[in-house]
Amino acid sequence: MMSNGAQRPARRSSLLLQIKELLVKRWSGLIVAMSVCVLGLQAADAAAVADAAAVGGNAPEFALPAVAGGNVRLSEYRGDVVLLTFWSSRCALCLSQLTALDDLQTTYRSAGLVTLAISVDDDPIRAAQFARAHQAHFPLLLDRKKGVSRAYGIERLPTMVLIDRRGRVSNLQADFRGIDDLYIARLRALLDDPL
After folding, report:
1. pLDDT per position as a tens digit, 88-145
2. Domain count, the chain
3. Residues with Cβ < 8 Å from 134, sequence gap 6 or more?
4. What 3-state DSSP class applies to 185?
5. Residue 114 lies in a domain
6. Scanning 21, 54, 88, 169, which has the fewest C-beta atoms within 10 Å of its C-beta?
């Protein structure tokens, strides 16, 4: 016959085993539930980005600080044709694109064109220095957290996004090779649309 002292370690061992099994089941269930939630949120985020940045979809709203000071909101330009360009001080094509867009802005400003250049630089000081060294006739904005570039699904630089007077994405162009006649025709069609 076993003494009470010998039964206690056996009961304690059995109790610890039961607690361990219970914890494993609960943690496993919690981990599965959290994984499902995370995957669902990621899918929803991806769908929202794809829907928002898709041609024909509403342009995602943003407010960003301008290098020259103050904040710029996209909604301030509802009723105008907005050309967004995403750039970086490390992008070789971006400088030539910003120069071409400066000429475009000067030509079509009176027809309702608004150009906004959004920096996706990791170093906001470097971006601001680049912007000050390359003055433009449109606001140069800083997307420090890259939230706007993510909202528009920007993967390559420079990328241009045309937004019509109703606030819908009309065109996305990620392969800048200059402003050609086809791009001008698209832009003029948007500018000619009275709203």
Report:
1. 999 989 989 999 999 999 999 999 999 999 999 989 889 989 988 888 999 999 999 9
2. 2
3. 95, 98, 99
4. helix
5. yes
6. 21
- Retrieve residue 106's tokens: 């000067």
The whole-angstrom separation of Cα 110 and Cα 100 is 17
Q: Which helix (H) or strand (E) holds 31?
A: helix 4-53
0.90 exceeded by pTM: no
Distance CA 76, CA 34 (A): 39
> What is the SS3 assignment for 64?
strand
* Domain housing 148: 63-192
Same domain for 18 and 78?
Answer: no
Token output for 179: 């402003």
pLDDT digits (tens, 9 = 90+) for 33-88: 444 443 343 443 444 444 446 889 999 999 999 999 999 999 999 999 999 999 99
Question: Closest by alpha carbon to 112, among 162, 72, 153?
Answer: 162
Ramachandran assignment for 79, one of left (phi > 0), alpha (psi -120 to 50 degrees), beta (any other): left
For the chain, the residue count is 195
Rounded Cα–Cα distance for residues 39 and 32 (Å)? 11
